[in-house]
Amino acid sequence: MRLNENVHPTFKGDFLESLHLEGIFSVVDFLSQEVPKITELSDLSEEDVDALRLCLFSKYAPQATTALDRLCPAGSIRSGVASLDQLLGGEGFLTGRIYEVFGLPGSGKTQLALSLLAECVLCAAKQSNAIYFDAKNDFFVSRLQEIIEERKSGDAASSNALDKIRVKRVHSFDDLLNALFLVNGIIDSAGSVCGDDIDRFWFRLRLVVVDNVASLVLPELQTEGDGIKRVFARVESLVGQLQKLAEERNVCVLVVNNATLRSLSGAAAETLHRPSLGKVFSNAADVRLQIGRVDEQNRTTSARNIRVDKGVRMAVDASCKVSVTKRGLDE
Fold first, then answer.
1. How far is CA 74 from CA 25, 86, 95, 97, 133, in A?
2. Residues 115, 163: one domain?
């Protein structure tokens, strides 16, 4: 559909001419552009551009999720650590995928999650928002603010970045499952609402963090008999909601998991670290990372090792060294 006043009254005069000079002739061309670029070509604010985009989605994309999937190119969220981004293929954490990071207590799992949150909301060009599901009731906004302060450039206020992150405490497996259903439902409705009736936060959602899934699922596994089957079925439902966010909403999903120790007997006896939930959650992630101290006997060391345990077109067992500093994860 070619842009004109029949498409929307905004597409006329100098604005329409400016779009044409940039090679933007159709609705698809327009929706493929970043919001800051459109504001530069017009007198519209970012809020006005968001509202215009939502109206176009509503009018010309009945299946809003399919339109988002096709019109929004797959992006990435850098970790802020070059060696980690390189380990993941060079682009960091990709939207459209589910990542799982597991490790022992104090290994740096949450530091990785907070670092990714900071990088997501500090990228001004992508105008990205994030949600953090806190299942351990230990989210410290002061630590996240410290990481943002250390990573931000210029005089930007950290409060502006914090405004792009919503934190939801979940106290049970049902809390998390219901919250994910709600998020997917809100995004579904976003494609059919115009003007001031829509919370624009959801239109720019690019990262969802669940920290920590084991805290919610393990208590459920204490049941016996048919209760275990019900837990497996509900975990499948959870995975389905996460996959919907990743694949249909073009969101990067990071799930934090604990690790268990597994001893191997024989001549070459050793102890392996494996994800806590075993087969219950084994097929959920596209990419699984293990994080741990370089020296597990030294509890004060800041050095960490991150290893690829599973990955799409990745070298399994490839690893990189990082450290935990005021910036979160660092070189």
1. 22, 18, 6, 10, 23
2. yes
